[in-house]
């Protein structure tokens, strides 16, 4: 059964037809060149026709590609006009919204896009507040006491707070941080029994995450691993791993793709970390709530493929 072309493929093709450059299109759409190329190939396969002629380092539209571009450009224009009309309802809402975030690498990827989307489509006055989970502050109280409206963090932290609601974005396993000079550096997966003779540093916030408490308990009781130390400073943890002082274990969402001296290897245990945004039930009833969630989900969906 033939697949149906999707909106991402159309968006990418229309951009390439204008730029005639995979590189420029990738930059404009915040995607990797491999993602651009894959989508175009899939579109051509689904249409059973060549749209783009590739020769050396230049590209051009085929006759079929030019016809497809002209027709789809008109259709896309109509769709964009409709979307603009629908989004005008968002622009009538004026609020000041404060969002707490942790400044992890993944947030460096999608938050700038979220900010741009919100600024373009709404009149919301967005304020970001950096939250450090390693200090003594109770994170839930920031929401309950209305110091912030939303908090981007991990779901299990709020499991005993009935006043807090949560929207999940990503679910990730725990990751083992391995230095480049460690013999485990090239492993694709690690199991708890492989960590038995190693010194382990488990990242843990000052206000503990239940998933990491469960991890430590299971490592000690099920696997008899006792050479474990918790550490709340992620910078110190990184240095310890780079110096081959042991292995680190962190929530998978803390993965840093720019870090070349450390690999983040999935730990094969039945423990998942759910990343998303928390808010009070009172905030959920406000008209600004679905707008924040909509654009946050959209920004994450755009960057997660390349991440």
What order do the helices and strands follow? HHHEEHEHEHEEEHEHEEEHH
CATH superfamily of the largest domain: Periplasmic binding protein-like II
CATH topology heading of the largest domain = D-Maltodextrin-Binding Protein, domain 2
DSSP strand tally: 11
Q: Proportion of β residues?
A: 15-25%
User: Which architecture name of the largest domain does CATH use?
Assistant: 3-Layer(aba) Sandwich
The level-1 CATH class of the largest domain: Alpha Beta
Domains, number:
3
The secondary structure category is alpha/beta
Mean pLDDT: 88
Give an overview of the whole structure:
This protein is of the alpha/beta class and 307 residues long. It folds into three domains: 7-90, Arc Repressor Mutant, subunit A (Orthogonal Bundle), CATH 1.10.10; 93-168 and 274-304, D-Maltodextrin-Binding Protein, domain 2; 171-273, D-Maltodextrin-Binding Protein, domain 2, CATH 3.40.190. The protein has helices spanning 7-19, 22-29, 33-47, 63-91, 105-121, 139-144, 210-221, 234-242, 281-284, 289-304; strands at residues 52-55, 58-61, 96-101, 125-130, 150-154, 164-179, 200-203, 228-231, 247-251, 262-266, 272-280. Strands 3, 4, 5, 6, 7, 8, 9, 10 and 11 form a nine-stranded mixed β-sheet that branches. Helix 1 (7-19) packs across helix 3 (33-47), helix 2 packs across helix 3 and helix 5 (105-121) crosses helix 10. The longest helix has 29 residues, at 63-91. The chain is flat. The mean pLDDT is 88.
